[in-house]
TrEMBL record:
Stretches assigned to the Protein kinase domain: 1-138
A GO term, aspect molecular function: ATP binding
Protein name: Protein kinase domain-containing protein
Stored Gene3D superfamilies: Transferase(Phosphotransferase) domain 1
Superkingdom field: Eukaryota
InterPro entries membership: Kinase-like_dom_sf, Pkinase_fungal, Prot_kinase_dom, Tyr_kinase_AS
Length: 138
């Protein structure tokens, strides 16, 4: 991702299905939704007529505001959601199935309403109370 941004390209669809792990290194695939940055020497944002990406892994800003520009920071936030989602889904942890379902539906996969996903992700970053007592086991 860093190499692409340095070259002036945003991926814009960071998701669990678009990352291959080969010899311990991550490789991004599926560059169909990528865009050239306006100024490749100073990566900042891409304006698009519609949002792109996998809903569960989109940044809080893009989920909340359908006209927000997509920045490299949004892609970085998507990496956080991918790692967090994989950890919750595939690592033994203390979250009950009901709490996990509630968290996924509220934060990572909110229902769309008038083109937005609401404030679940932003609220999660502010309070994180849904994860009180969360522990991971070996």
């Amino acid at each position: 991702h860093d190499d692409a941004v340095q070259a002036g390209v945003l991926h814009r669809d960071i998701s669990a299905g678009n990352i291959f792990i080969v010899d311990g290194k991550g490789i991004l695939i599926d560059w169909d939704l990528s865009k050239w940055l306006n100024n490749s020497s100073a990566p900042d944002e891409v304006r698009q007529p519609t949002r792109t990406g996998t809903w569960q892994f989109m940044s809080a800003a893009l989920v909340w505001n359908k006209s927000a520009p997509h920045t490299f920071v949004d892609d970085l936030e998507s990496f956080f959601y991918v790692i967090f989602w994989l950890s919750l889904m595939y690592s033994p942890n203390s979250m009950s199935p009901a709490d996990l379902t509630s968290f996924m539906q509220t934060v990572l996969d909110p229902q769309q309403y008038k083109g937005t996903g609401g404030s679940g992700k932003a609220d999660f970053f502010k309070g994180r109370s849904m994860l009180d007592g969360l522990a991971f086991w070996d």
